[in-house]
Amino acid sequence: MSSPRDRDGFDDRADEGSGWREPAHLGGDSPAERPTGDRPGGPDRPGEGSTAWQPPGWDLPPASPDRPVDQPQTAEERPARGGLLGGRRPRTPGEVERVFAYQGDPVGVQGWAVQHGWTASDGTAPEDAVLAELVRTAPVRATKDHRPAGVVRGRYGALELVAFDVLYASGRYAVPEYAITAAPVLGSVPTLRLSPARFWKHRTGGLVQVPSGDPAFDARWVLLAAEDSPATRRLVEDATVRALLLGTDDGDEFWTTTGHGGWAGGFVAAIRPDGHRPELLEHHARLLTAVVGALAVVS
């Protein structure tokens, strides 16, 4: 059994530590009392002020002259004001933060909107209040950290549309996780979810499956509705809707919601796990045109 006296296989040296003295600036030793010539491995370094050996980095570097008052400081040198412990230098964002920082309109959606006579907002305008309910009712696992951003509104054919990113904003990160395009409609809409069969279904309690009668379509798409009504039957039996959906990559989900944010009508909406871009917006617009037409609601 080992004890504090054990040396782990090294022989005890009677003179071990006998040449050590406390540095003069920490104790009462004078420079004359410091040991000399006992640096391990060879004689003292030539040209040094003292012949005593000290561990590397023991002495502080010589003080630099004071910075001139009128010399400008860079952003890296300038300390930030405030804080519980006083000023501190601004933190430089890491590579991951720079990559995932939300850029607002990196793929030109708002530029596309302006070219087509649409309007844009940042998601905080009064008319954007309803969008939070669209996020909340979407068939994805949205949290309190998800919010609308990059909103554009305009007309596509016979439909009025609103399109926006669902931004995940938490701490230093702001990442567009989903793209939503929605068509506000004046009439009432049946409660339904139209999703790819391969997708996990969230919040589907109380909904029943409505088959289309087309085995190829039912193998890839699932319609869930509050009831098997004529409107929902028209949706899955519509040849245009089925052809458009069978020609996609099964990456979008559709749902309806009614009476939010002061809007008396409802919404027919599409969502995809992606940030919006012009091609995706036009893709959603084509699909929503077919879906709204099949439901026979007035936009």
3D structure, described in words:
The chain has 299 residues and is of the alpha+beta class. It has a domain at 119-295. The chain is 21% helix and 21% strand. The chain has seven helices and nine strands, in the order H-H-E-H-E-E-E-E-E-H-E-H-H-E-E-H. A nine-stranded antiparallel sheet has the order 1-2-3-4-9-8-5-7-6, with helices on both faces. A hairpin with a 2-residue loop joins strand 3 (159-170) and strand 4 (173-185). Helix 6 (239-246) packs antiparallel against helix 7. The longest helix has 18 residues, at 278-295. The chain is globular, with a radius of gyration of 35 Å. Residues 32-48 and 69-87 have low confidence and may be disordered.
